[in-house]
Write a structure and sequence with these properties.
single chain; alpha+beta; globular; HotDog_dom_sf; lyase activity
């Protein structure tokens, strides 16, 4: 299973469809609101949302929607990233409700080699998130510094830092009969 890409693997114009989707539950939304101290009643108080908002029900907090989509993109985009450099724009264009399932995809807008270090580059991408009906709910653009293959090779390959299992009395090793 791929986890991120090296600079050479990105192609301008390519689109990565993130899988699987994520159904947003009321618990998820409330827990995220409480963890981040966003106690706005639009997200937490069903009666308030029914009586006083244009939607008539709770709306999922936007930062959670963004976080889900960002997380979905990691295996395809930033799983090997050296640094997330910039969130250029973030737009919530439609509400997400409890029970909606979010899907995302990311398009490569541009890429360029680092001017200061020859073992990395920057990838400029746009991620869109949409619900089970295909309605786009969130869009964001970001720039990610990613390694070139040479960077990965110098640091242990595809899974740098991964330990090797040590044989002992519980596991004699792969060559034991």
């Amino acid at each position: 299973m791929q986890f991120g890409r090296s600079y050479e693997e990105f192609e301008v114009g390519a689109t990565y469809k993130h899988w699987p989707g994520k159904t947003v539950t009321e618990f998820d939304d409330h827990m995220f609101c409480l963890l981040t101290m966003n106690h706005h009643p639009l997200h937490l108080d069903e009666h308030y949302a029914e009586e006083t908002t244009q939607f008539g029900k709770n709306v999922v907090v936007g930062n959670y929607v963004y976080s889900i989509l960002l997380g979905m993109s990691v295996p395809d985009v930033s799983g090997k990233a050296i640094a997330n450099l910039e969130i250029e724009s973030l737009r919530h264009v439609a509400p997400t409700f409890h029970g909606d399932t979010l899907y995302g995809e990311t398009r490569v807008l541009d890429k360029w080699e680092s001017t200061s270090k020859d073992d990395r580059g920057v990838v400029h991408v746009e991620t869109i998130g949409y619900n089970q009906d295909g309605k786009v709910v969130c869009l964001f653009r970001r720039k990610v510094m990613v390694p070139k293959t040479s960077y990965l090779t110098e640091r242990g390959g595809e899974q740098p830092g991964r330990p090797v299992p040590v044989p002992d009395k519980n596991w004699p090793g792969p060559d034991a009969t």
